[in-house]
Amino acid sequence: MKRILAIDFGMKRTGIAITDENNIIASGLTTVPTREVMTFLIKTVKEKSVGTLVLGEPKRLNMEDSHSSQNVRLFKEALDKQFPELSIVMMDERFTSKMAMQSLIAGGVSKKKRQQKELIDEVSATIILQSYMASV
What we know:
Strand order of the largest sheet: 3-2-1-4-5
Order of helices and strands: EEEHEHEHHH
CATH superfamily: YqgF/RNase H-like domain
Distance between the termini: 15 Å
Number of domains: 1
Shape: globular
Helix content: 40-55%
Strand content: 25-35%
CATH class: Alpha Beta
Largest sheet: 5 strands, mixed
Number of helices: 5
Structural class: alpha/beta
Radius of gyration: 14 Å
């Protein structure tokens, strides 16, 4: 079974999450500097046998584009070109950063560790992936 990989794209950092081999459990994988994300994805898609990419789609509360929507669309175009054989799905990512912070607090993660933005991005990607998995 092909895995599902989720991407929380940002201008500086990009959070990545992936399912297990049976597509039952979503786990944070890492956060990569955005300038290195395509190289990372090319390697990971092949090594982890990924069949679907889920890309967080930033929207405002009223469903209008956010300030980063255009950058995400451009990144999706690059993904479409790089991975024509994969299914690439957009998933609403509103509130994922807030939900990530709340889950870290609930999990007892120290305040110092919660200040690491890389961790928030990784957990946000995991939430995007869980939302996608619940919708299919």
